[in-house]
Amino acid sequence: MAAMSAPALVPPTARPRAVSNWLLTLCALIFVMVVVGGITRLTESGLSITEWKPITGAIPPLTQAQWQHQFELYQRIPEYQQLNRGMTLDEFKNIFFWEWAHRQLGRVIGLVALLPLVWFAAKKAIPRGYGWRTGIIFLLVCVQGAIGWWMVASGLTERTDVSHVRLAVHLLTALVILSFTLWTALDLRSEGAVPRKVPTLGLWAFAALFVQLLFGAYVAGLDAGYAFDTWPLMGDELYPAAAPWLEPFVRNFVDNPVTVQFVHRWWAWVVLVFAVVLARKVRPSSRRHSIALHSAIGAQILLGIWTLLSGVKLHVAVAHQATAVLVVASFVAAIHRLAVPGRVTERAAPLVPSTAEGL
């Protein structure tokens, strides 16, 4: 009887594989976005565009007069007046490019999140139980654009850089969107496209990883990677006794570059423990998920150490940030592999074999 009622609960036009492919494409674009965002931050390019024009801003300056106007706007902010006074127009064009490319990618991601969503919805190709999820993904992408401007705005009046707290919100939101999108895509590819519940181990692993990513964002925002370029000790000590200490105590875990770098160094090993446990748990059912998780976390720790020892060389630091995204993806994939199907309801009905096929 249940098998007879399933087709009535699922639109015969549902195409879970196609919707999953769209979401995986979105994940790939978010990966590129985070990498370009890292380059933008490391090259101090984020404040080169001082206006937020979501539509007209897609067109870069085309004439000498337009370039001069953008440069004059930049010359009004503290970063130029206190740090970059004397910068030439050609030097300005270099930093402008990265911020423009970052924003342009944001526009592309917005279109990729919206247009296929509208098309799939019109064709009734989204399986039941996934319409609200894909809608939330689009809304999160829109919110992320607003967060990006909120971050930039923090560095336009009184500061010579953006708020590291706002930068952390911006980066973590991107990674939350990536995780939610990837989980949804994997749900759609699972047997029957039945949504899966995050296991308890997965929740703890995500929490540990979130803490590490948060402190990684603080390290980037505070330029804390430059505080000490030695490893495993910070100079000659585990924690430098002469380092300044902020009051109240909790501020050190947000605003003190030395403390932030210290936590980011050593919390990595907590994340490593979770990664090893997850890899061992998932290995019996999927050796490739286990290998991917081991590889991503191992490469990330080595790149983190290399970033410090290199004095935060651009290509090393960018590779470190890019690999962080791969770590997040490998955690999501491994945890999803361990997850169990949730309760099937009319809102999230399983697909019958005839509708489970993709393109």
From TrEMBL:
Q: Which reaction does it catalyse?
A: Fe(II)-heme o + 2 A + H2O = Fe(II)-heme a + 2 AH2
InterPro entries tied to this protein: COX15/CtaA_fam (IPR003780), HemeA_Synthase_type2 (IPR023754)
Q: Which Pfam families match?
A: COX15-CtaA
Query: Which pathway or pathways does this protein act in?
Result: Porphyrin-containing compound metabolism; heme A biosynthesis; heme A from heme O: step 1/1
Its membrane topology, per UniProt? Multi-pass membrane protein
Give TM regions.
21-40, 104-122, 134-152, 167-186, 198-220, 262-279, 291-312, 318-340
Name its co-factor(s): heme b
Q: Which residues bind heme?
A: H264, H320
Leading EC class: oxidoreductase
Which EC number(s) are documented for this chain? 1.17.99.9
- Subcellular localization: Cell membrane; Membrane
Keywords noted in UniProt: Cell membrane, Heme biosynthesis, Iron, Membrane, Metal-binding, Oxidoreductase, Transmembrane, Transmembrane helix
Q: Which domain of life is it from?
A: Bacteria
Task: Provide the family line.
Answer: Belongs to the COX15/CtaA family. Type 2 subfamily.
**What is the annotated quaternary arrangement, including any partners?**
Interacts with CtaB.
As for what it does, the entry says: Catalyzes the conversion of heme O to heme A by two successive hydroxylations of the methyl group at C8. The first hydroxylation forms heme I, the second hydroxylation results in an unstable dihydroxymethyl group, which spontaneously dehydrates, resulting in the formyl group of heme A.
Can you say what this protein is called? Heme A synthase
Natural source organism: Sphingomonas astaxanthinifaciens DSM 22298
Identify the taxonomic lineage of the organism of origin: Bacteria, Pseudomonadati, Pseudomonadota, Alphaproteobacteria, Sphingomonadales
The coding gene here is ctaA
